[in-house]
């Protein structure tokens, strides 16, 4: 192994990796539009050769690439575009272990267990009740930098459920942590239900009786084989330790609009005492105030790209009591006021 390959191998061993299906779909879409993906791949730290070889990629790089591809293609809902057009069998073992299950509930529990085979950053949780909820979250990847990958995951879950039961079922509601503005009819039409943005968590809720629906592709013999294969793949998967900073960021982000993003609240949500939380931050050379400030900066840039969000709304979303506080912070971050920064985003 060359020195360069050893460096890549060490880096990928320390961060969540992904099978890269969403990246490959986006590359195909760029090629279909006669746009070379090479420059965008390089900017995201990816290579066409690795994708062609079927190698796993940095999950964070996939998030970055989808954002770059979205802007280049002029498709602000690229994740949904990709999710609705690919053959679900491209999910590989995940598709077959779900499709061969007996009931939809069995299939979803298989996905809950094995989802990280496709993307080690993705955590899927199924909660039963009068409604059943599929909760999606990230580990080792900053959630606030992503829109397209999470939307792609969610619509893929819905498409898979529809295909497995042979009927166009829809969630009761879909919630996303990230913000969207403007006309969202396109999003609602694709999910077939209300879709909320700026929520505290990413999730999809369905009628509980759907869990008992028998699948049209039920195959107990194939399912037994696929479960064995998935278990072997899970056992062979390296255990990655997520960056504590990313965990803290993903906890802070939904608390900002509620003015609850203080160290005490974050520590409680992480199951830590304030003292233990402070020690953990210090041990990694981190400061809570710095993490919060840099998170706000990243979110401010993202929100200012949304023309439908007013400056006062952005200030509230970031946990500032007054728009003037956002203005002062924005000048410190970018050297420009929010309005000047937003005007600079517009094509000349």
Short summary:
The chain is α+β, with helices and mostly antiparallel strands and 348 residues long.
In DSSP terms, counting alpha (H) and pi (I) runs of 4 or more, how many helices?
18
Give the C-level CATH assignment of the largest domain: Alpha Beta
Q: Taking strands numbered 1, 2, ... along the chain, how are they ordered across the largest sheet?
A: 3-4-7-5-6
CATH overall fold name of the largest domain: H-NOX domain
Question: Can you tell me the overall shape?
Answer: globular
Structural class: alpha+beta
Number of domains: 2
Q: What's the helix-strand series?
A: HEHHHEHHHHEEHEHEEHHHHHHHH
The low-confidence runs, each spanning 5 or more residues with pLDDT under 50, are 1-14
Mean pLDDT metric: 89
- What's the count of strands? 7
What proportion of the residues form beta strands (DSSP E)?
A: 5-15%
The end-to-end span amounts to 48 Å
Mind sketching the topology for me?
Layout: H1 3-14, E1 17-18, H2 21-32, H3 38-43, H4 48-52, E2 57-58, H5 59-73, H6 78-85, H7 93-99, H8 104-114, E3 122-127, E4 131-138, H9 148-165, E5 173-176, H10 185-191, E6 194-197, E7 202-207, H11 220-236, H12 244-252, H13 263-269, H14 274-283, H15 288-304, H16 311-317, H17 323-334, H18 338-345
Parallel strand pairs: 5-6
Antiparallel strand pairs: 1-2, 3-4, 4-7, 5-7
């Amino acid at each position: 192994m060359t020195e360069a390959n050893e460096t890549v191998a060490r880096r990928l061993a320390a961060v969540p990796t992904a099978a890269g299906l969403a990246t490959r779909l986006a590359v195909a879409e760029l090629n279909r539009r006669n746009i070379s993906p090479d420059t965008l791949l390089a900017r995201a730290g990816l290579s066409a050769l690795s994708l062609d070889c079927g190698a796993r990629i940095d999950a964070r790089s996939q998030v970055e690439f989808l954002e770059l591809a979205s802007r280049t293609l002029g498709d602000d809902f690229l994740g949904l575009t990709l999710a609705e057009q690919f053959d679900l069998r491209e999910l590989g073992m995940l598709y077959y272990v779900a499709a061969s299950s007996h009931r939809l509930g069995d299939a979803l529990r298989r996905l809950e267990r094995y989802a990280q085979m496709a993307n080690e950053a993705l955590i899927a949780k199924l909660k039963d009740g009068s409604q059943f909820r599929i909760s999606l979250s990230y580990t080792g990847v900053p959630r606030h930098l992503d829109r397209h990958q999470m939307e792609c995951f969610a619509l893929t879950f819905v498409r898979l459920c529809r295909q497995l039961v042979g009927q166009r079922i829809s969630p009761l509601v879909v919630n996303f942590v990230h913000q969207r503005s403007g006309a969202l009819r396109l999003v609602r039409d694709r999910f077939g239900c209300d879709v909320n943005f700026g929520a505290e968590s990413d999730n999809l809720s369905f009628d509980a009786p759907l869990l008992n629906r028998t699948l049209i592709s039920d195959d107990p013999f194939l399912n037994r084989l696929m479960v064995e294969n998935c278990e072997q793949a899970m056992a062979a998967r390296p255990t990655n330790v997520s960056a504590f900073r990313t965990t803290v960021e993903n906890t802070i982000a939904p608390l900002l609009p509620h003015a609850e993003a203080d160290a005490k609240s974050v520590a409680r949500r992480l199951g830590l005492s304030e003292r233990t939380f402070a020690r953990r931050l210090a041990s990694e050379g981190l400061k809570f105030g710095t993490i919060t400030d840099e998170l706000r900066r990243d979110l401010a840039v993202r929100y200012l790209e949304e023309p439908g969000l007013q400056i006062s709304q952005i200030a509230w979303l970031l946990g500032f009591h007054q728009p003037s506080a956002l203005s002062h912070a924005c000048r410190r971050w970018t050297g420009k006021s929010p309005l000047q920064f937003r005007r600079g985003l517009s094509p000349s």
